[in-house]
Amino acid sequence: MSVKNKLTLSVQYPDARLQESITRPKIRRWVQAALFAPAELTIRFVDAEEGRSLNREYRGKDYATNVLTFAYNEGEELDDDAPTQADIILCTDVLEQEAAEQKKTVEEHAAHLIVHGVLHAQGYDHMDDEEATEMEGIETELLARLGYADPYAD
């Protein structure tokens, strides 16, 4: 494994509903596809209560959201071999609801949210239209390589 894609990955299922279907090997594959540098990541699946609590405490928004990324070395200039460090929190309730609303499988939506979270961990954002277009393009390309449809197609 090259330094570029060296990955230390922890997967946590305090909300175990997706543990059998969204498995660690799938998650590792999705994360690896979206990595452009070494990383130490935790992917954590939580229920609506924990998701809401985290979103309220860290973003001031009192609702559960689909994915939260806590990038611990955000804005730092990292050496080539220094890992990106982040926790990526997925709310199972929101993930399942959005998948149903968007007529996607839970797996397709989880893959998208994990790729999205990994890009955030590496400094990508969508605060303005230009950034959003760039990030969505990267997500669409990575997901296509993984065999998933464009998550932004209607």
From TrEMBL:
Keywords: Cytoplasm, Endonuclease, Hydrolase, Metal-binding, Nuclease, Ribosome biogenesis, rRNA processing, Zinc
Main location: cytoplasm
Cofactor notes: Binds 1 zinc ion.
Keyword Ribosomal protein part of the UniProt annotation: no
EC number from the UniProt entry: 3.1.-.-
Binding site for Zn(2+): H116, H120, H126
PROSITE patterns: UPF0054
Gene3D superfamilies, per the entry: Metalloproteases ('zincins'), catalytic domain
Compartments reported by the entry: Cytoplasm
Domain of life: Bacteria
Cofactor(s) needed: Zn(2+)
A Pfam family recorded for this sequence: YbeY
Catalytic class of the enzyme: hydrolase
Function comment: Single strand-specific metallo-endoribonuclease involved in late-stage 70S ribosome quality control and in maturation of the 3' terminus of the 16S rRNA.
PANTHER family attached to this UniProt entry: ENDORIBONUCLEASE YBEY, CHLOROPLASTIC
Protein family (similarity comment): Belongs to the endoribonuclease YbeY family.
Protein name per its UniProtKB record: Endoribonuclease YbeY
Source species: Duganella aceris
Organism lineage string: Bacteria, Pseudomonadati, Pseudomonadota, Betaproteobacteria, Burkholderiales
Gene: ybeY
